[in-house]
Amino acid sequence: MPAVLEIEGLRKTYRSRRRGVRHALDGFDMLVEQGQVHGFLGPNGSGKTTTLRTLLGLIRPNAGRMAILGQEVPDALPAVVGRVGAIVESPQFFPHFSARDTLSLLAGAGGVPQARVEEVLELVGLRDRAKERVKTYSLGMKQRLAVASALLKDPKLLILDEPANGLDPGGIREMRTLMRDLAASGMTVVLSSHILGEIQLICDSVTIISLGRRVAFGPVEQVLAAHSQGSVRVRLEAVADLAAAADALTRAGVQVTAQPDHLVLAGVDKPAAVTRLLAENGLYVSELVPVTVDLESVFLELTATAPVPGQHRQVDESTKVGDGGQPSVAGGGWGV
Ligand SMILES: Nc1ncnc2c1ncn2[C@@H]1O[C@H](COP(=O)(O)OP(=O)(O)OP(=O)(O)O)[C@@H](O)[C@H]1O
To answer: Which residues form the ABC transporter domain (predicted)?
Structure first.
């Protein structure tokens, strides 16, 4: 499969007198093959929007290379831009225009035949409300209009930042079907989302970014399989003992992800060793079961953003269990 999108070693550094140097992108890589629905995932502030804006020529990177449809960007952007549809951050529409007028105006400006307006209205499910003013639309309807505007030029690559934002469950399901249909027709779709269950259902492959670096990528099943080896869920008689248990297990070399009422341990080949270790520390297990990992737990583990009882993780902090309970800032986010 040819690569539709390639990013290698992308760096973007922001400098400010007050906050010093901030590495929004710290040698980030990404590869998306043709006809895939590709999920782009990362916690708040991890660099997703910076990546997409850099790709679209809106931000100048400090280093790295990028190619869209086999052409190096930003140099070749004028040549490829007609084949890329993108919504990065919510677009603003004239509130007094209807969806049909809005799309008609955009089609005219982009040299797209007017017949395409009706096609995209139908595709995103706005046909019956197309005559009404945008200011009367719900958030989800505006989101559908945004997707319709990105689809106008029948792009080869569609980039959507949080397309399910504001959609109701029915709308999310329709968006899922639309993305799959578009990919089946040969379009490549890159979407960022925080709805990880949705990404798992919809995407063929994913890239996970944390603190400006890629921490996982590949087909969804491969990413899940790579992280499901020997995972077990542990509950204790006393929830208050979880932090102590996480600490003891981490010191013994077990990889621990803390959830509010249980721990998930990775790479456990002998569950009995876990119960023994905890019992020796006066901590008593009430449940120990193998878990099939989902994308959410992989995400929380790789980005170290699992909630820890009693702590309020701040943006830019990666809360590592077992480091004395103190939130830590992993390399790459702040500082030089
Ligand atoms: N213009 C700017 N000046 C300084 N720092 C910036 C600027 N734009 C982004 N950043 C910083 O770069 C980092 C990455 O931001 P970015 O918007 O790419 O994150 P994101 O992954 O899209 O987050 P979210 O999921 O919250 O949208 C953040 O720490 C952010 O504060």
So the answer is: 5-236
